[in-house]
Amino acid sequence: MTPCVFVLNGPNLNLLGTRQPHIYGSATLADVAAACAVTADTLGLGVRFHQSNHEAALIDWVHEARTAAQAIVINPAAYTHTSVALLDALNAFEGPVIEVHISNIHKRESFRHQSYVSLRADGIIAGLGTQGYTLALQRVAHLLAEAAR
Ligand code: CA2
């Protein structure tokens, strides 16, 4: 069976590539989804890519991942810094969780230095641009292969 990875994206990331390219680059979220699909295929992974501006939708996808996915890659966007509810949901998921930030959150405002999601994440990628997503998928493939050994 092909392992499935949920790639989840939080609020305002639907605007990627349209504003603030000096922070987030020029790739759109559709470009990121396409790159994830290509990389997942190469790695023998299936991928389901979602974005929502609503905390509850992200939580519902994490719940769905409990039975439908082997790993989660998540850019929670601003909910990174605020959402205990998202952390609680991720704590109920058993597979690897990789947290991705396009920008280097530690180089930015101090309120971005705190991440609730990091309390659950098995790995964190920040500041590597949208390339962070495909790098996260590589790490997931490695962790799933290791777990299967
Ligand atoms: O660096 C990241 O990936 C962030 O998760 C992005 C969030 C921000 O709140 C986090 O602190 C760091 C913001 C996403 C908003 O994305 C936009 C992209 C283009 C134009 C406007 C917003």
Automatic annotation (TrEMBL):
GO terms for molecular function: 3-dehydroquinate dehydratase activity. Pathway: Metabolic intermediate biosynthesis; chorismate biosynthesis; chorismate from D-erythrose 4-phosphate and phosphoenolpyruvate: step 3/7. The keyword Signal does not apply. Gene3D superfamilies: Dehydroquinase, class II. It comes from the Bacteria. CDD domains: DHQase_II (cd00466). The keyword Transferase does not apply. Pfam families: DHquinase_II. Its EC number is 4.2.1.10. Substrate binds at residues 75, 81, 88, 102-103, 112. InterPro entries: DHquinase_II (IPR001874), DHquinase_II_CS (IPR018509), DHquinase_II_sf (IPR036441). Keywords: Amino-acid biosynthesis, Aromatic amino acid biosynthesis, Lyase. GO terms for biological process: amino acid biosynthetic process; aromatic amino acid family biosynthetic process; chorismate biosynthetic process; quinate catabolic process. The record marks 19 as: Transition state stabilizer. It catalyses: 3-dehydroquinate = 3-dehydroshikimate + H2O. The active site is at 24 (proton acceptor), 101 (proton donor). Belongs to the type-II 3-dehydroquinase family. PANTHER family: CATABOLIC 3-DEHYDROQUINASE. Catalyzes a trans-dehydration via an enolate intermediate. Homododecamer. This is 3-dehydroquinate dehydratase. It comes from Elstera litoralis. The gene is aroQ.
